[in-house]
């Protein structure tokens, strides 16, 4: 009797659900898989953005920031452009015309921030244009350079001279033969050096008559002037049938034409200014002496 009751109790136990106590975990099944192990994971330090702007888009964005009001932004954008151009855009062409880029960048030669102007020079040098390509853009660049040469700030004037020196080394012939490249540039140099009004007009009139003696142009002594011209439109500078033009904006393609303009308008002031600079001595006198020898050599070759 006792053993039968015991068996019934054990069978009934199989169909009873265990009562769980509050706060006590549910017992695991016999076939449960342990998930307590840890797996190694690859962690990216930077998120990958599928919508990241292309190098061309970034380049154009920084060009648009050149007109930013913040000095630091203009400087950083120029530095980015210089770095990108120096690397050659990884073999790809510049995503905008060079003329449009210079239109945005060249006004910064007048920027009051010295860091911006320094980055501008680096960007211009990083363009790595050939002499032919750079010569095509001299006419666009010179007005900004001349404006900086006559600026009130001495630092901006110095930056202008740095850019002018770079242009003369790269495309000197294109610069002096471009419209206004000779006359207007010399005018700015005279103003910069305070040599503009050093010589009176009456002194120059006597010198002019002595230097252009008609007897010097006889075929016996100067037959080259009477030969057949070797260039097209040899007398185009006379502008016999064209509209009146500004003398300062003329294209002076020949060396002889440029020397005549220098003699007529700038030589007396330069000569007197050089003599005064020689008397200063020191570095100024030394540089004035070198300039004097350069002018003498150029005039002897005429």
From TrEMBL:
Ranges where the Pre-rRNA-processing protein Ipi1 N-terminal domain occurs? 133-208
Q: Which Gene3D superfamilies match?
A: Leucine-rich Repeat Variant
Major site of localization recorded for this protein: nucleus
Composition-biased stretches (Basic residues): 1-11
Q: Which Pfam families match?
A: Ipi1_N
From the Swiss-Prot or TrEMBL record, state where the protein is found.
Nucleus
Q: Which PANTHER family match?
A: REGULATOR OF MICROTUBULE DYNAMICS PROTEIN, TESTIS-EXPRESSED PROTEIN 10
* Described function: Component of the RIX1 complex required for processing of ITS2 sequences from 35S pre-rRNA.
Q: What is this protein called?
A: Pre-rRNA-processing protein
């Amino acid at each position: 009797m006792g053993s039968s009751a015991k068996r019934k109790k054990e069978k009934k136990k199989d169909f009873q659900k265990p009562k769980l106590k509050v706060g006590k975990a549910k017992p695991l099944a016999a076939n449960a898989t342990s998930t307590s192990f840890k797996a190694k994971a690859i962690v990216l330090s930077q998120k990958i953005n599928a919508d990241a702007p292309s190098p061309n888009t970034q380049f154009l964005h920084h060009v648009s920031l050149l007109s930013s009001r913040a000095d630091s932004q203009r400087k950083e954008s120029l530095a980015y452009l210089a770095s990108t151009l120096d690397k050659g855009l990884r073999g790809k062409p510049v995503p905008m015309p060079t003329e449009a880029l210079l239109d945005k960048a060249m006004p910064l030669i007048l920027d009051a921030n010295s860091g911006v102007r320094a980055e501008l020079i680096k960007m211009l040098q990083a363009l790595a244009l050939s002499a032919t390509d750079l010569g095509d853009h001299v006419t666009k660049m010179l007005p900004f350079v001349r404006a900086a040469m006559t600026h009130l700030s001495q630092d901006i004037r110095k930056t202008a001279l740095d850019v002018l020196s770079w242009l003369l080394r790269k495309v000197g012939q294109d610069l002096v033969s471009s419209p206004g490249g000779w006359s207007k540039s010399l005018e700015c140099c005279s103003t910069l050096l305070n040599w503009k009004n050093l010589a009176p007009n009456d002194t120059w009139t006597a010198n002019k008559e002595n230097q252009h003696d008609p007897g010097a142009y006889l075929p016996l002594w100067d037959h080259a002037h009477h030969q057949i011209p070797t260039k097209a439109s040899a007398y185009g500078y006379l502008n016999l049938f064209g509209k009146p033009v500004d003398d300062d904006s003329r294209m002076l393609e020949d060396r002889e034409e440029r020397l005549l303009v220098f003699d007529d308008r700038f030589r007396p002031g330069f000569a007197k200014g050089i003599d005064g600079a020689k008397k200063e001595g020191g570095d100024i006198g030394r540089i004035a002496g070198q300039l004097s020898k350069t002018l003498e050599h150029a005039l002897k070759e005429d």
